[in-house]
């Protein structure tokens, strides 16, 4: 007998009122889909929108979808359910009569239409209402979360997952939960059997399909007799497995359990995904299958601009998660939302640890006696937490469950909810949330791990912060960049496994060329505004260079952010924000992938994996810049969270282009899996006589390789300028007279007036300048400089003795750090900077760090940096010599 009727296909559509069945339908569209992907609704593009992508045909309200269905005669007298995966509030009408409603927006809806669908043809109408805030059962504060927000996947109207009618006999399997008992080598199965008839005896047969590396093997079959009472009968079964295969990132083996209920009137089946996965907290580390793991995570904020909603197919998620795995990611966090089964199934296959969250973003979870208590929110969280665990919890990739993102309230409320969740499923890890109580960091007893940006008000565990969240990170504040930073002090304050929250957030310049990629229901009005602003400022010809130069700096900063965490012995992991751009919340192009998961061609996956993978070799050294003849003290580390131990003799080399200047082999070392290891130390002495040169420090250990840039400069004394060149820290009357006399004046100054300069900064702007500038203004505190790296005229004669690429690298750090770039908007196009500071896309100032101009009879070289006060640094002294 046919047990399912697929409802995907063409439906009639009418936009109308929630409680009134339309008299006629004006459009047709394909479901699954949304009104916007079908082009239905009034054109209402907001061309002034800069906070997020603009919906071309936004619609909030009731949309009616109608079609004819033909019910087989064999279904007569059976239980018939309408199943809708991922929709909004719905009411179901059969032959002009309302028969069912649902307010489920996360788990699949299941409408019982048994009394309405007799054999033959019927008119089925589904009213989908995405005006969620009109419902007294829906907490309006959840509209900030990525499950519904227009900043991410939008509050679409439609049905985006499977749609089907299914039939069951009077006795059927209503639900089933499976947990792998690793210790006893068996599956614990809990099923609910619905019996609408008289009490009876039935048989449950379980068939096991073992899936490993894409290959399927049918194994055990177990039959058990059960007695079914009228109504619901709970059945608990245990299914031993002689040699269970375990699931993890290295060997994602899982099982499909086909459960069949046999009784006098027929059969009922259900397939449940399950696995053996021994995950537990031991001290400050998470162990999976007996070994500590390190979570290399990224955050998914539901950015899918081609559709405006998240995919629901396994194929689509295999593509997304496969890209992540190419970049060394083994952990994927769904920021304030929960995907459909397809994402879990893809992660099951690929071996990726998922963090799922309730749809909370900066909400207050409080008890009745607290200020900010919202009874509707509390009921919703408890209800949806249970439903999410019930629906998706058997997937082995469901690794960690969080209440939400950056929440506040009463910690006792979180404790109660987590206890309730753990009582239902003890094989999943739980945490109160991501970066909860960020202004007063504190974990609670029920937490299995702590996801936070700092463990006290001053102890950071990431390299960058907004100026609204001081103290800033080490990449933003340290004067001498190096590879020595660790977070040992911050880690010591955590009693639990510690995961760094939303690290990175370094912004690349927006690329207007992406505009042509937007062929779906969303349009990048912010990118169009950026393009228009660049045209008005005469900077559009530089845009491609802005994108590339800012992006290259972003990659270097991400590397240091990640490696600092890998260097911290005992850290559990990090979560990037993110590998993909975030075109919401003011437009934050923080990814090395664009909003469509496409590479920006800033770094290859293989190069990225040199510092973001299961096994990484690292070097600790105190500076990137040296004088000729200096000693370089190097400590070699291996972060080994791979599938096997490492043994071998490390090798260190220093290269100049294609020439190996020196090589040293270190003693044999071992690096067992599951820890950070020191595998050797050495001292390398640079040649006493060297021109200014960029070098490569290359390290090899077994199959691992990495490389760091170093710069070496002659240890020349500070020379006096030749005749005809005047050195100064200001452009006063004496310097102006020198220019009239035809001399060259070199001015090193970071003392320009505030109104014609901006604060110097090396690292790219955090997240999005306008968003955090507004927050800083509200607090009455200074906002970030808002700059995004350098664009350098690398072939200019100035750099003959100061080797550089066209973008900022570590040898520019001190020069940028002690600078105040000049605003030269009024000089365009007559003055073009030699070294341009890339401004954020909101201001788009023409900023100069180094410029030259013919003035009077002389030549002016203006360097907006306090170079003269820092000539003890090798790179600064070399830059001084190059300039004079």
Would you kindly provide a written description of the structure presented here, covering whatever features stand out?
The protein is an alpha+beta fold. An eight-stranded parallel beta sheet has the order 30-28-26-25-24-34-32-31. Strands 45, 46, 47, 48, 49, 50 and 51 form a seven-stranded mixed beta sheet that branches.
Concise account of the structure shown:
The protein is α+β, with helices and mostly antiparallel strands and 884 residues long.
What strand line-up does the widest sheet have?
Answer: 30-28-26-25-24-34-32-31
* Low confidence ranges: none
Sheet with the most strands, sense and barrel status: 8 strands, parallel
Report the portion of residues in β strands.
25-35%
What is the CA-based Rg, rounded? 31 Å
Q: What is the count of β-strands? A: 51
- Overall pLDDT level: 95
Counting DSSP H or I runs of 4 or more residues, the number of helices is: 13
By secondary-structure content and strand pairing, the structural class works out as alpha+beta
From the spread of the alpha carbons, the general shape counts as: globular
Ends: how far apart? 89 Å
Q: What helical percentage do the residues reach?
A: 10-25%
Outline the fold blueprint.
Blueprint: E1 4-6, E2 9-16, E3 27-31, E4 33-34, E5 54-55, E6 62-71, E7 79-84, E8 89-94, E9 97-102, E10 109-112, E11 120-129, E12 158-159, E13 163-168, E14 171-181, E15 186-195, E16 200-212, E17 215-228, E18 231-240, E19 254-263, E20 266-274, E21 279-282, E22 285-288, E23 291-292, E24 295-300, H1 314-326, E25 331-334, H2 341-350, E26 353-357, E27 364-365, H3 375-392, E28 398-402, E29 408-409, H4 411-424, E30 429-431, E31 450-452, H5 474-477, H6 488-492, E32 498-504, E33 522-523, H7 525-537, H8 543-566, E34 573-577, H9 605-608, E35 615-620, E36 625-627, E37 631-640, E38 646-648, E39 651-656, E40 659-665, E41 669-671, E42 675-685, E43 693-701, E44 704-713, E45 725-728, H10 733-740, E46 744-748, H11 769-779, E47 787-792, H12 813-817, E48 822-823, E49 835-839, E50 847-855, E51 858-863, H13 874-883
Parallel strand pairs: 24-25, 24-34, 25-26, 26-28, 27-29, 28-30, 31-32, 32-34, 36-44, 45-46, 46-51
Antiparallel strand pairs: 1-13, 2-3, 2-6, 4-12, 5-33, 6-11, 7-10, 7-13, 8-9, 8-11, 14-15, 15-18, 16-17, 16-19, 19-20, 21-22, 22-23, 35-37, 37-42, 38-41, 39-40, 39-43, 43-44, 47-49, 48-50, 49-50, 50-51
């Amino acid at each position: 007998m046919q047990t399912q009727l697929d409802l995907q296909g063409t439906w009639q559509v009418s936009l109308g009122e929630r409680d009134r069945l339309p008299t006629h339908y004006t459009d047709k569209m394909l479901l699954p889909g949304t009104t916007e992907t079908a082009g239905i609704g009034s054109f209402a593009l907001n061309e002034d929108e800069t906070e997020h992508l603009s919906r071309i045909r936004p619609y909030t309200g009731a949309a009616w979808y109608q079609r004819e269905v033909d019910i087989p005669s064999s279904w007569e007298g059976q239980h018939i359910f309408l199943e809708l995966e991922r929709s909004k509030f719905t009411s179901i009408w059969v032959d002009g009569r309302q028969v069912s409603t649902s307010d489920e927006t996360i788990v699949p809806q299941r409408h019982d239409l048994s009394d309405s669908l007799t054999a033959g043809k019927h008119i089925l109408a589904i009213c989908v209402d995405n005006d969620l805030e009109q419902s007294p059962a829906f907490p309006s504060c959840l509209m900030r979360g990525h499950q519904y927000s227009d900043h991410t996947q939008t509050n679409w109207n439609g049905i985006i997952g499977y749609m089907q009618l299914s039939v069951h006999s009077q006795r059927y399997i209503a639900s089933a939960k499976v947990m792998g008992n690793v210790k006893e080598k068996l599956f614990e199965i809990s099923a609910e059997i619905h019996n609408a008839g008289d009490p009876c005896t039935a048989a449950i047969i379980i068939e096991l399909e073992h899936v490993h590396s894409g290959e399927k093997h049918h194994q055990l079959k177990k039959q058990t007799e059960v007695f079914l009472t009228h109504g619901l009968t709970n059945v608990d079964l245990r299914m031993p497995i002689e040699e269970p295969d375990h699931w993890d990132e290295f060997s994602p083996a899982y099982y499909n359990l086909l459960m069949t209920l046999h009784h006098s009137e027929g059969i009922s089946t259900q397939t449940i995904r399950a696995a053996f996965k021994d995950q537990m907290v031991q001290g400050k580390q998470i162990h999976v299958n007996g070994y500590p793991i390190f979570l290399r995570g990224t955050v998914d904020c539901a950015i899918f601009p081609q559709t405006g909603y998240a995919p629901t197919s396994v194929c689509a998620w295999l593509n997304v998660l496969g890209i992540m795995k190419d970049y060394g990611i083994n952990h994927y966090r769904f920021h304030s939302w929960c995907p459909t089964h397809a994402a879990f199934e893809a992660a099951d296959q690929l071996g990726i640890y998922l963090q799922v969250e309730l749809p909370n973003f900066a909400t207050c979870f409080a008890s009745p006696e607290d200020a900010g208590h919202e009874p509707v929110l509390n009921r919703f969280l408890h209800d949806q937490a249970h439903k999410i665990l019930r629906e998706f919890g058997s997937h082995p990739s469901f690794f960690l469950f969080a209440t939400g993102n950056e929440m506040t309230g009463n910690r006792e409320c979180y404790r109660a909810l987590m206890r309730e969740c753990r009582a239902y499923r003890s094989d999943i890890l739980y945490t109160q949330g991501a970066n909860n109580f960020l202004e007063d960091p504190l974990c609670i007893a029920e937490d299995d791990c702590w996801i936070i940006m700092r463990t006290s008000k001053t102890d950071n565990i990431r390299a960058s912060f907004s100026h609204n969240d001081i103290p800033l990170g080490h990449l933003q504040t340290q004067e001498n960049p190096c590879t020595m930073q660790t977070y040992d002090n911050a880690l010591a304050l955590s009693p639990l496994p510690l995961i760094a929250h939303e690290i990175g957030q370094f912004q690349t310049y927006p690329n207007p060329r992406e505009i042509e990629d937007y062929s779906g229901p969303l349009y990048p009005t912010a990118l169009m505004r950026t393009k228009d602003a660049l045209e008005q400022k005469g900077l559009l010809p530089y845009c491609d260079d802005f994108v590339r130069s800012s992006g290259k700096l972003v990659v270097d900063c991400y590397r240091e952010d990640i490696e600092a965490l890998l260097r911290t012995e005992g850290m559990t992991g990090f979560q990037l924000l993110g590998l993909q751009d975030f075109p919401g919340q003011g437009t934050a192009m923080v990814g090395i992938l664009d909003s469509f998961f496409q590479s920006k061609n800033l770094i290859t996956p293989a190069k990225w994996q040199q510092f973001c993978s299961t096994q990484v070799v690292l070097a600790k050294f105190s500076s990137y810049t040296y004088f000729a003849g200096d000693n370089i003290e190097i400590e070699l580390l291996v972060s080994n969270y791979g599938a096997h131990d490492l043994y071998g003799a490390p090798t260190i080399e220093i290269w100049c282009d294609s020439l190996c200047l020196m090589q040293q082999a270190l003693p044999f070392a071992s690096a067992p899996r599951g820890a950070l290891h020191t595998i050797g130390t050495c001292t390398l002495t640079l040649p006493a006589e060297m021109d200014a040169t960029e070098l490569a420090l290359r390290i090899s250990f077994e199959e691992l390789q990495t490389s760091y840039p170093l710069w070496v400069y002659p240890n020349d004394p500070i020379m006096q300028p030749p005749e005809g060149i005047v050195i100064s820290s200001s452009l006063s009357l004496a310097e102006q007279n020198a220019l009239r006399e035809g001399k060259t004046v070199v001015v090193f100054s970071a003392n320009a007036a505030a109104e014609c300069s901006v604060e110097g900064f090396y690292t790219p702007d955090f997240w999005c300048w306008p968003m955090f500038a507004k927050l800083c203004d509200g607090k009455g505190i200074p906002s970030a400089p808002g700059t995004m790296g350098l664009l350098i005229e690398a072939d200019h004669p100035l750099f003959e003795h100061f080797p550089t690429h066209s973008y900022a690298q570590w040898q520019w750090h001190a020069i940028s750090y002690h600078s105040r770039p000049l605003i030269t908007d009024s000089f365009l196009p007559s003055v073009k900077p030699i070294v341009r500071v890339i401004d954020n896309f909101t201001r788009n100032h023409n900023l100069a760090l180094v410029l030259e101009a013919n003035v009077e009879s002389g030549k002016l070289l203006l360097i907006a940096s306090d170079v003269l006060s820092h000539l003890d640094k090798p790179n600064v002294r070399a830059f001084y010599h190059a300039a004079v």
